[in-house]
Amino acid sequence: MTRNLGYLLAIGLIVGFPFVAPNSFYLHLAQIFAYTAIAVIGLNLLLGLSGQMSLGHGGFYALGAYGSALLATAFGWPIGFAILGGIALAVVFGILVGLICLRTRGLYLAMATLAFGFMVEIAAQRWTSVTGGAMGLFGIPQLYFGDFRMGPTYFFWVTAALLLCVQISSDYIFSSRYGRRLQAIKESESFARTIGLNVPLWRTAIFTVSAALAGLGGALFAHQSGFISSEAFSIRLTIGLLIATVIGGLGRSYGPILGAAILIAIAETIAALHEIGYLLYGGILLMVTILFPEGAIGLLNKLAPTRKVKEDPGNRGETASGRELDIATVAGAELRITGISKSYAGVLALAELDMNVTPGSVHALIGPNGAGKSTFINVVAGLYRADSGSISLDGENVVALNAYQRARLGLARTFQNLQLIQGVSVLDNVMLGLRPSQVASADFLHWLADRRHEARERTEAMAILDYLGIGHLADLRPKDIAYGHRKLVELARAIAQKPRIMLLDEPVAGLNPQEAEAIAKVIARLRERGVTILLVEHNMDFVMSISDRITVLDFGHCIAEGTPAEIQENPAVIKAYLGTDEAAA
Amino acid sequence: MSLTNFFQLLISGIAMGAIYTLTAKGLFIAHLATHRLNFGQGDFMMVAAFLVMAFLVAGIHPVLAVILVAAILCLMGYLLERIAIRPLDALADRTTPYAWILTTAGVALILQNVVELIWGKSAQYAPPLFSTTRDSVVSVFGVGVFLEELAVIIVAFVVVVGLYWFLFKTRWGKGIYAVAFNPEAANLLGVDVRGVIVLVFVIASLLAGIAGVLIGPLVSLHPHIGLIFTIKALAVASLGGFSNPIGILVGGILFGVAESFSNYWDSAFGDLYPLLFVLISLAIKPTGLFGEVKADVR
Question: Could you report the per-residue pLDDT of A346-369, keeping only the tens digit for each?
């Protein structure tokens, strides 16, 4: 409830501030703070949460400002609609620039946004017939609801109320499945696709949201002063927004509030030291990034008494004890693979492979290193594209589907190189696998209303962890727990997806015999509930004990298929593993 | 447009393209080995241009001036790595993966301000390096061409060839590719990974320095021209997919020529079209127009 108390306090502060502000200058600063913070929140969602860089947010801010100003002056739109129009303009360009981030990321996105911001600035300067250039646009209507004297107060109330709404939305994103998923996309795209997320769509969406918030900030700026000129939208604006984001605390929901306040304090100071403005900006950017990477929020957290972080007591050999896994029986999927081929730069990894996995069975894929096993798993999961052939899931050809679409059809997998999201807890990692129980609006209201937000998901994820014997690690970060436990977390996440077919890539590699036995029990249990399991593994005792059927690969070719007993007798398999008599001699 | 006009535009375009290529090569080489680069690459170029101008105006012999500038830029590259790049390794996941963009951009802002404090905000004109006046003209196949532009093209070409030799024929060049491929494995094979990282930033900075020395006489200098060169160099490097050195050379020249002609046709917004073209091409072909040749190296 402390959160909602905070919101109430904020409302009180917003209502009361104009009456306690010593003079109109402070009210003016508070307005600047409010709309700047809105833009900074947008940048924080992008940079901090989704890990995408933008060096062009000043451009979206400018589009919002010019869009709204022009609609309100040249077209005479009412301010509210003009602001919406300004945001729409920023959104359109956000999507266009976002198209680049659909396909590329990181450096390219930084470059594209930098170029975009620069082009907007140039357009603002030189397209004087529309923007007025450096001379600017005058007479942009201001908000005063008929009472000119109270105008600044009203305007403050409107901007601050908008800021509060945006802040609440940001808090929700940070503490709900959306934040979790963005964190997952930021850390591991393969993971995100595996749990059924359409990664390009999410990237573009968050980029667009971020652009819209920058546009809103800019539109409010235009209506505050009633005058805008191209001078206001130089690279310095983008740098300022970046500084506010970083200095407040990247990736913390309350970072932008602190950051915007600090930025305005700096900007006011720099006004007196105009000569060395860039020097200060640059110095701050450099120093804060290196010396205080967690920003002001991080410093505050350090001052506050810290909760002692529990540590993983290590592998105690606990097994899937007492508790039962309470999952519904599913109709396991049938996987039918015909003529799948895949080659890398001329090297054939899979050659015309055929394979049928019967529903509800455990099918193992074995073979010497380099046989093409991992390639096979990745091709089936959709992370790699096959060169030819077809993959059908219950008769539906999925070869053209993306990994996330296959995941939604009930295909879950684990990774040989564990893909766990370090930025969230073990429990959250498992919850990432769950399908949400509520639609977004209901989830939001639930979050706003009480503390037991996502209680059902939490219980469900906890039950899976308990079943695997690692419930006591739920609050830890994946990097703080033992390797064997991390493998179990991966398995838990895959179970949470309620799959009809599970692909397990080396589920017991690196585990001790007790742990392997525990995993074997889990797999047996899953099969009992109807789940089809396809696994790749080197541990022969494990494979022979749990598999119904085994396929053996060597150099991309299937050299044998049959029951464990048949495989153990098969001369071709023995040859592939042990070499021929001639070679041995 | 007359044929003479066409040739002059072409030569101007190639000259500017050569500058972009040199600047972009610096981005490429740093990105190759470290996956990071200097977002102040253009500002390093700007500093070099101001320095060489100051030395020449002070009456220092041009050769000595160029050597001095090269030495200073190498030092700046070294310091950049120490101040803005290396400390980030210690932070690991406490910061954003792209923190290097923020730190190097921070250094760029500081440089802009320092130059502004020393030389002022107004535009400066650097004395020519290879001729007596800025507008000396030589005749090539009957077409009058600025001597400076011709010299820029020749010097840039020599530098690019030298860079290729260094990258592909020397031990250090192989070390750079080894680090690019896998730093840990390179380390186990006895490559001084730290040394290579310092080296690529020094080379990047030196390339910016050479570009700065060359560009001084071609444009009017002011403390904030760096950003636009950073943007254009990034655009050129991304045409080459940040991985194909030949692509960067071709892309750089094409970019310069395209810009030269589009400026001729539309003096107001001409410089934006090539940039826009690069952005659109990136959306369509994310690996860059020339990106695939070496894309598998990573």
Answer: 777 787 888 888 888 888 888 887
Q: How far apart are CA B247 and CA B27, in angstroms?
A: 13
Question: pLDDT per residue over A524-557, tens digit each?
Answer: 888 888 888 998 888 888 888 888 888 888 877 8
In degrees and rounded to multiples of 5, residue A420 shows phi and psi of -115, 150
d(C-alpha A239, C-alpha A234), whole Å: 9
B contact residues 142-171, partner A, Cβ 8 Å cutoff: none
Closest partner CB to A126 (pick from B117, B269, B275): B269
Torsion sign over Cα B203, A118, A163, A226 = positive
CB < 8 Å to A289, chain B: 88, 95, 99, 102-103, 106
Query: Residue B117 is nearest to which of A102, A275, A294, comparing CB atoms?
Result: A275
Q: Which residues contact B220 (CB under 8 A, 6 or more apart)?
A: B123, B124, B125
Amino acid at the residue B283: A
ipTM given for this complex: 0.87
Q: What are phi and psi of A362, to 5 degrees?
A: -105, 115
Gap from A397 CA to chain B (nearest CA, Å) = 28
Candidate from B96, B109, B230 with C-beta closest to A285: B109
Q: Does A104 touch chain B (CB under 8 A)?
A: yes
Q: Return the residue matching tokens 């930033």.
A: B201
Q: Which of A111, A251, A278 sits opposite B109 (nearest CB)?
A: A278
Which of A59-73, A289-303, A391-405, A501-515 is most confident? A59-73
Rg, C-alpha atoms of chain A: 29
3-state helix, strand, coil in chain A (%, to 5): 60, 10, 30
pLDDT band per the 50, 70, 90 thresholds, residue A583: very low
CA distance A537 to A472: 28
Select the highest-mean-pLDDT range: A215-219, A330-334, A581-585: A215-219
Please tell me if residue B228 touches chain A, with a CB cutoff of 8 Å.
yes
Distances (CA, A) of B195 to B85, B179, B199, B201: 13, 10, 6, 10
**In terms of CA atoms, which chain B residue is nearest residue A121?**
B272
pTM over 0.90: no
pLDDT of residue A320: 46
Task: Determine the distance in angstroms separating the CA of B88 from the nearest CA of chain A, rounded to an integer.
Answer: 6
| Amino acid making up residue A382 | G
**Is B96 close to A47, i.e. CB distance below 8 A?**
yes
For residue A191, the distance in angstroms to the closest alpha carbon of chain B comes to 18
Q: What is the pLDDT of residue B294?
A: 39
Four-point Cα dihedral A458, A463, A469, A470, nearest 10: -10
- Which of A279, A236, A272, A240 lies closest to A39, judged by CA? A240
Give the pLDDT score at B167: 86
Residue in the structure block whose two tokens are 């357009």 = A123
Report the SS3 class of residue A331.
coil
